[in-house]
Structure formats: C-alpha cells, structure tokens
Structures
1.
Amino acid sequence: MDTGRRLYLDLMKKVLTNVVYEDNPLGYEHVPIPWFQGDPAYDPEKRRVGLDWPSVAHTMVGLKRLDNVQECMEQVLSDDVPGDFIETGVWRGGVCIFMRAFLEAYGVKNRRIWVADSFEGIPDVGEDGHPLDVRLGLHRANETLGVPMEVVKANFARYDLLDDQVQFLPGWFRDSLPTAPVERIAILRLDGDLYESTMDALNSLYDKVSPGGFVIVDDYALRSCRRAIDEFRDQHAIKDEVLPIDGASAYWRRSA
C-alpha cells in the first residue's frame, strides 16, 4: 500500500473512532439498560477494542474491528471477489463511511456500499420475541441507538463521501432486506444485535455472498446474536472456520 493511501485510511479510522479528541463514553442516563455499565471516562484500550459507547465518535466498533474491515476489503480486491459491501445495523454510519473511504482511496468505482438500518433503533420484540432478545432489552436505549437516516447521510457528507456509491436501505430488516436490490455481496457485516435481526439478515442476504467473500459478525459475544449465527450455520451446513477479531466480534470467509 502506498504511503498516501495508508495515511488516509489510518487517519479515517482514528477520526471515526475519535481517538484523536478522546470523547467520553455515554453513561447509564443515555443507555437505560440494567446490564449496561457506563464508563465514567475515556479509556484508550476500551475504545481500541470497541467496548464503550462513544458520545461523539461516528462508530462504536473500535479500531481493531475497523482494521478487520480494511483487511477483508483488501483481500476482496486482491482476489477480485465480486460484489458490493453491506452493513446491517449502522448506528451513526462510521463503518460504512470507512468502507466508502476505502473505495475512494483505491479508486474503485464499480462497487457500492449498502447502508441498512431501521434508523429508529432496535425493534421492541415484545414478550413473544425470542427470549434472548427480550432479556437483552436494547430497545430501551433507542434514544441513543436510533439515529435518523438524514443524520447518517450528513455524517457521510462531513467526509465528502456521500454520493451514488452509497445506497440506503431503511426499515426493519424483515421488511427491507428480502427485496433489497443487492445482486452480489463481497462483504456482509452484521450488526443487528438481536437473534431475530441477525437471522433476518442472514436469511435474506447470505445466499448473495460470493465465494471468497466475508461475513463479519459485530455482536458475536452477545448470546442472542451468537445463537442466530450458530443455528444458521448448522441449518446450512456451513463449515468455514469462525475467526475472532477481538473479544466481541468474529468473521468467516465463505468457501462455497
């Protein structure tokens, strides 16, 4: 990688995670979930591995997971794996912004970034939802998790990266993804937290992932998400090795 490209992408990761100005994490008053542990001050290690909820940064995934996105994208380009890049569950849009920055840095014009989100937060599954989703109760934090689509678009525009290569898919995944006009996928990044959201995304999109493409699971440490991943892989006899990214996330490369 040439020096200019490397410096640009490294700077994008630092700005998107805001390790430059070190914004404090959100506290319990912003995330009213019983199990949530609000951090009182910025911790560089937690920000590196995505274990806090930033108050200002455009992503909460941390530097290690952005490194993983970059490595997967580089492998896709190197091996000429066909398809676009999609994230299901984008919050403030930081990961998708980085994906678009990567395409810009490499001069790629024939691939798109798909930004899929309700833009209202996490669905309230009610008492009849999957027990692990009910127990998680993430919808209680929707004032923080529900970022309107216009705000996400404005975040792209702040980096001069909002253009026709960025496509938005608003709505609950069960409604928006089955008819999404995505033909082939080189990277499917799942960040829906819930069992149902994860399963909805896999059922609609996995068949579109090209051989040699990647499936990245941001919430693999959550029992709700991991149960969906394990069940889907069992149902479809997927044997590709699941590799850890950090203490919370994992990915695999589709072999067939």
2.
Amino acid sequence: MSKKILRRAGFLAATLAASIFTGAQAAEPIKIGSFLSVTGPASFLGDPELKTLELYVERINAVGGVIGRPLELVHYDDAGDASAARNFASRLVRSDRVDIIVGGSTTGATMAAVPLIEQARMPFISLAGAVVITDPVKKWVFKTPQSDRAAAERVLQDMKSHGITKIGLISGTGGFGRSGREQTLALVGKMGMEIVADVTYSPSDTDMTAQLTRIRNTPGVEAVFNFGFGQSPAIVTRNYAQLGIDLPFYQSHGVASDRFLDLLGDAGEGLRLPASPLLVPDSLPNSDPQKAVVTSYKKLYEERWNMQVSTFGGYAHDGLMLAVEAIEKAGSTDREAVRKALESIQGYVGVTGVFNMSSTDHNGLSADSFRILEVKNGKWKLIN
C-alpha cells in the first residue's frame, strides 16, 4: 500500500474519530437534578411533580432536546425529610454534577438545601411556597408557586370585597402553616382588617373541633381562614361542617387539587381558596393567555398517567420550562449565564401564572395570578 493511501486512510480515520468525538460532545446530556417528596406525608406534592418532570423530559427529548442536547433527569425521593433533602442536594451537586436543580416539594426541604446550593453557585428552582424561599432574594434560588404572602393577600382581598373585616385564623404549626399565619398577620392591619381569633394545630392532630369551637365562640368573627397543607386541612373542613359553623370558610392554595375534594365529600360545599386556573381550564375565556397552556398540560398529564392533574404538578411544569427557557436564552449550561437568564425572564406564560422575574424578584408572580375558586356541588368553580 502506498504512503499516499496510508496517509489518506490515516486522515479519514482521524476525521472520523474527530466527528465521533464532536458528536459525543454535542449529545452530552443536560442534567436536570431534582429532590422531591414522592413518598411520605407530602407525596401528594412530590408524586405529581415527578410525573410531570418525567413526562416533559420525554417530550422535550422527542423533539431534539435543548440547545441540541438531550435532557437527563436525575431525581431522588426525600420522603418529606429535610435532612434527606439536604443530603440529596449535596449528591446532585457534588457527585451527579447536574446543571440545574428543579425540586424541593416542601419549604422545609427547600430551605435545608439552600445554604449548600448558594455555596455551590447552582441555579435552583424550588417548587415550594413559603415567601422565605425568595424573600430576601438569594442569588441562586428561584421558585414557581406563588408565595404564601400572595395567597394570604388574595384571600383577604376576596373577603374585603364581601365586607368581611374580622377573621378567625386557624393554621398548622408546620413550616407552611406557620409562615402562612405570619404573612396573614402581617397583612391584615394594612388592609384595614383584624384577626379576632388565632388558633393552631399540629400536623399530627386528628381532630380540630376544640380549635374551631374557640373560633365559633369568639364574638365578631365574620369568616374563617385556614392555612395548612396535607391531610390536616381536610380534617379542619370536615370538623367545620360537623360543628355547623355558618360563616364563609377559606383555605389556602396548599390544598388546591381535585384530590383534596375527594377527601371532603359534602363537607367542602361553599369553601373558597386561591388557586391556579389549572383546576378550571374550561371556565377560562379564550382570550386568557393561560388557557392554552393549562389545557395542554392537563390533557397530556392525564393521558400519560391516567390520573387527575394537580396544581402541584403544575409547579414542576413551570420549573422545568423556566429552566429550559433560561438555558436556551443563555445558549449554554454555564451556571452564571443560566442564573442571569432566569432573572431576565419576562412575560413567560406558565401553568401557575405569567412570570416576570427580575434581580429583586425571583418568583415573578403577584397575588393577581391567583384565581378564587369555590366548591359547588363537589367541584371547583371559578369565581374571579
């Protein structure tokens, strides 16, 4: 074989090797890390969140991925334990070397991981609700649910529009309920309203009749507001009906799901709460910018998993899509570039609301992004 042929063969081999190497580089996955409460007491949050992430990673990869690279979901189940969440966040950063984290079903799990995430300079989009997650602003931390402050404000606005100014407040002592109570107490005075009864319950309590009786016996109470999540708000609602309390009753966004209705039976009739329009997509006018997004998500989720969609899965949808939007905007997975891109997102229409992020707002949603829903004949009805 001549030297010319050998040289040509060597050139072709080198070219092929370079092509394979370049192709391998181009196909290197973008790693989306996640720790979620898929099992345990907060599984009603984490299970639909994981299902949503899996669904949309599959769909995004089917159309070519992001910036020419497939997505790879690396997830762990923290079972609602804050210590486990912190350990999994550490593993995602140090061992799995993910590019961004979308997760944290609960406020406790999220806040346990935040110091490590800030230290690692890792973009993180939380799926938990408490205002403390993004207020004060933390450079690397964002979130998709409206804050408990926004939820309290929206409920108080609705009460005030009906002439209600004196409120009985009942709340859980867990992280979500405690923060929601604090935000409600901070807002009422500014809105010309008053908390005339203030009682709490433990997440382990199986009956809240005593607390509700105290509220019922307090002079001047015009409406009752419960701030909590998990099984407890369902117990509160059933006890409320059993006591025959004839006052307007509000829950927080922490129970905004069809599954919650299943736990109530007839006890929930007339109950109001702030929620995403995801629970009532058919009630939205065609002019509503969220209608197409929530209708599509609901259809795809329910077809894929053969189960009802939930607001909490919607938080995961928005978290992943905001991550994708930021990576595309940055044109890379460079952490600082992605973080800056997240901060600059404006007018992004999600399941939860229309996001307008900034350097001073890492949530990007106002109280107006909530819709007020009421239980009518065992189903959610859009009020305003």
3.
Amino acid sequence: MDSGLFSIEGGAVTARALAAADVPALQRFFEANPDYFVLTGGAPPGANEAQSEMDDLPPAGMSYTGRWVIGFADAGGGLQAMASLLSDFLAPRVWHLGLFIAATSLHGSGRPQAFYDALERWMNGQGAQWLRLGVVIGNARAERFWHRQGFVQTRERGPLTIGQRQQMLRVMVKPLAGGTPAQYLTLVARDRPGEA
C-alpha cells in the first residue's frame, strides 16, 4: 500500500490506494466479510473476487479520468473497509462510487459512517461536485445508509446479473456543491428515468 490519501479516527485508520500487491489482503477482507456478496449475488465472494475488483473497468464508451480501489487500513495494515471510485464518470466532476464495504463487525458502530464521511471530503477536495452510485433494491441496510448520506434516487436499472442473481438497481445521486437532481440529469442523461 502507498503512504495514504487521508487519515481517519485521529490517524488510527489510513485510506490508501490499493495496488496489485494488495490483492491478497483485499481477497482476505472479502472472504472475512461475505455478507454483501451473499445478499447481492447469492454466494460468498469467489476465489478471484479481489482481482476482479481491481481489474473492473466501465464498459467502452463510458468516459472517466481516474480510478481507485481504496482500502481503509488500521495501524497493523488490516483492512477495515474498502471503496472503488471513478472520477469524471460520464461527465466532468461526477464521481461514481462503485462499491463501499465495511467490515461486518463494524456495522452499527458508527465507524463506516466516519470512513464514508472522510472519503466524501476527499472526493470533494479532488474536484467532485456530484456523487453517484447504484444500490441493489432490497439491500435494506445499504439503502438506508445511502439515504442517510443525502443520496436521492434518479431511476431504477435492470434487471442486471450480479453473481447468481438478477437484481434491480436504484441509481442515486448526491450534490456536493449545491444543485438539484434535475441539474444533474442535464449532465448525465443515462440516469434519467426511462433511459435505456
């Protein structure tokens, strides 16, 4: 892992961009925290889940300028959470949060909230004005979490194949510099209700 992008909890946790050498640690994190994969895909993470996450790119024709897989590591290097991000996705200053997973043992502790808050401040500092994500409809914990963060639905997409399941996604957006969902939809037509 590199020297870190930002710190949380008085420096007890550091967010770092993960690299190829971190794939085994990310795989161990996924296997120790399988709830997301079981809920959304119907099975625990596969043997190559971390490598797939590191290699995952948007489809051709979907523009972006940067991509990160970020690990939130404690002082001993153990992963507490992870996030995957794209900058300038589909439009300038729109950032996409592809995945955010906190260790199951931290759920309900407030720590995932602190991790996300620090991540959002970092993205804002990097120029993000809009954040977007997709949450699986029926993943009640995630739906509540993102709603509490100020994300609002713009549309539903699907069905999409996730692992062994067909799922519908709730596409959600949050302005970081003011603005309304209608203004966002002038930038990202793909997220308008009824779009293919």
